[in-house]
Amino acid sequence: MENLVSLKKVSKQYGKKAVVDQVDLTISAGQIVGLVGPNGAGKTTCLQSLLGLTDYDGEIDVLGFEPKSQRTAMLEQVAYIADVAVLPKWITANQLLSYMESIHPKFSREKAESFLAKTNIGLTSKVGQLSKGMVVQLHLALILAIDAQVLVLDEPTLGLDLLTRRQFYSHLLEEFYTEEKCILITTHQIEEIEHILTDVAFIQDGKIVLAESTEHIKERFKLVAVSPENESQASSLKPLTSNRLMGITTMLFDNADSSALSGVGKVSTPSLADIFVGVMAKEVY
Ligand SMILES: Nc1ncnc2c1ncn2[C@@H]1O[C@H](COP(=O)(O)OP(=O)(O)OP(=O)(O)O)[C@@H](O)[C@H]1O
């Protein structure tokens, strides 16, 4: 697989604090990577570094460009939705399309219009007259109409209702994603994107604490509902976390022997959210 994005030992300090700390990450064509971490973990700073929006130490390569020194050329091939994305209230959808057409060589007005035709946004609608969800849809129409190989999304569905969030991700897969492209996405709502992710990177205190394909991660971690008589035996297998609810103890294991696990209870595959909580707990305690 062709590498589209790579970060090598990337760090960023604010004062004495390293908010991004020696981050290594590569993203290849066809990958949809979730960068997941608690508030203040360094997700946005990582994205800003790879978009050349902030200075950093270390090496970043995006489609052969160095973001710090070749930002303008790089951004012709990279599309980006920021969590603080703001469009001016007075502008109409039509004016926005014309503006994008005039500044971006890879923007297709036809694509944007066909996307907007599936929404309630008219070409004469002003941004100020749209709901929050509609503004995100308008933004998405602009982004999806750019023939970019790399798409970077920072909390793209923040503040949207469940239906609009689902719609956002299905549009993303249908209208943008192909095997030649990659998507890097940060979100707190991991349950909602786990079905579309090919890979996940967990970040805490600026450090990547786990980076794996979702396929491999689900083979590696197991959840076991342990019956009371097997609790001490299960504990000796060193679970990452242990939770008791209505008399049943559920333990999360990382790389434990599968026959030993099936000997102490009912084994199932955890969700990415379960794994995230387990890995973060291990890093904290
Ligand atoms: N301009 C800045 N000056 C000083 N500190 C900053 C600046 N920008 C970010 N930080 C700090 O860097 C750390 C990482 O912030 P960042 O926004 O990257 O986190 P995040 O993982 O995106 O968080 P969230 O999920 O809350 O959006 C935080 O401790 C934040 O306070």
Automatic annotation (TrEMBL):
It holds the Pfam family ABC_tran. The keyword Repeat does not apply. It comes from the Bacteria. Keywords: ATP-binding, Nucleotide-binding, Transport. It comes from Thalassotalea marina. PANTHER family: ABC TRANSPORTER ATP-BINDING PROTEIN ALBC-RELATED. Residues 5-230 form the ABC transporter domain. GO terms for molecular function: ATP binding; ATP hydrolysis activity. SMART domains: AAA (SM00382). The gene is nodI. The keyword Cell inner membrane does not apply. InterPro entries: AAA+_ATPase, ABC_transporter-like_ATP-bd, ABC_Transporter_VariousFunc, P-loop_NTPase. This is ABC transporter ATP-binding protein. Gene3D superfamilies: P-loop containing nucleotide triphosphate hydrolases.
